[in-house]
Design brief:
Keywords: DNA-binding, Transcription, Transcription regulation
Protein name: Phosphonate metabolism transcriptional regulator PhnF
Number of domains: 2
InterPro entries: Bact_HTH_transcr_reg (IPR050679), Chorismate_lyase_/UTRA_dom_sf (IPR028978), CP_lyase_PhnF (IPR012702), Tscrpt_reg_HTH_GntR (IPR000524), UTRA (IPR011663), WH-like_DNA-bd_sf (IPR036388), WH_DNA-bd_sf (IPR036390)
Shape: elongated
Number of strands: 10
Low-confidence stretches: none
CATH architecture of the largest domain: 3-Layer(aba) Sandwich
Helix content: 25-40%
Order of helices and strands: HHHEEEHEHEEHHEHEEE
CATH superfamily of the largest domain: Chorismate lyase-like
Structural class: alpha+beta
Radius of gyration: 21 Å
Strand order of the largest sheet: 4-5-6-9-8-7
Length: about 240
């Protein structure tokens, strides 16, 4: 079946083919380990030359989504994990629910003064002391996201130790008196990976990352956590729940 290319969209033809392949993989048309159609077959489907297809495949190979086995063809190296965004968003539950193994670690902490942005998100005074906790999250041994979270220090003085003990924000906040929390707001954008996250996420310079900024609140609707997460764009597919 032929697939139409929008040549007036201002998006390179090879990029449109790459995005089509990504979508097919995300939807399960091509699963992990599956062999892709040949370059000739894809070229015929889009009515383009093989060089254009080869460039799309090379881009996705560079992102780690595909792998080329000499003499055998091109295969799906990994399938993006669905990551639901809803009122209750918990990394470990999301990963475990897809028969994958979650893990991670705390990679940094600090105390800093709240700037206007974070003070507004946490409904506190500008300049008030914040706890900062930085984490790396891993799925089946592959790093997928780096997160920086801020909390009001006066309210949660023992949070760093609680997180170090439990490895879970849910459990750490429970130890600090917050029995449960929910997601009030999520904002999603994208940017190129920065130099520090290149090593942590094990992706190449110039690759895109999803930026997910979120605010969690306690049962009284009081903010408890503001987080800025950087997600490897080829490893996670955000699913917005309604």
């Amino acid at each position: 079946m032929q697939v139409k290319i929008d040549r007036g969209a201002g998006i390179a033809v090879w990029r449109q083919i790459a995005e089509w392949l990504k979508a097919e993989i995300a939807q399960g048309t091509f699963v992990t380990g599956a062999k892709l159609p040949t370059e000739s077959d894809i070229a015929a489907r889009f009515q383009v030359n093989r060089h254009t297809v080869r460039r799309a495949i090379a881009a996705l190979t560079g992102e780690g989504l595909l792998r080329a086995d000499q003499g055998r063809g091109t295969f799906v190296a990994s399938t993006p994990m669905n990551y639901p965004i809803g009122a209750r968003t918990r990394f470990s539950e999301i990963v475990s629910g897809q028969d994958k193994t979650p893990s991670g670690r705390m990679i940094g902490t600090g105390v800093e003064d709240a700037d206007a942005l974070i003070a507004g998100q946490l409904q506190m005074q500008v300049g008030a002391p914040l706890l900062r906790i930085e984490t790396l999250r891993v799925v089946d041994g592959t790093p997928v996201l780096v997160g920086t979270s801020w909390f009001e220090q006066a309210r949660f003085p023992g949070l760093v130790a609680a997180y170090a003990e439990t490895g879970s924000f849910t459990e750490a906040l429970r130890l600090c008196g917050v029995e449960d929390y929910s997601r009030r707001e999520t904002r999603v954008s994208a940017e190129l990976v920065d130099s520090q996250d290149i090593a942590l996420l094990e992706i190449a310079a110039g690759q895109p990352v999803l930026i997910v900024e979120s605010v969690n609140v306690d049962p009284q609707d009081r903010p408890v956590q503001y987080t800025r997460t950087r997600m490897a764009a080829d490893r996670i597919q955000l699913v917005v729940e309604s």
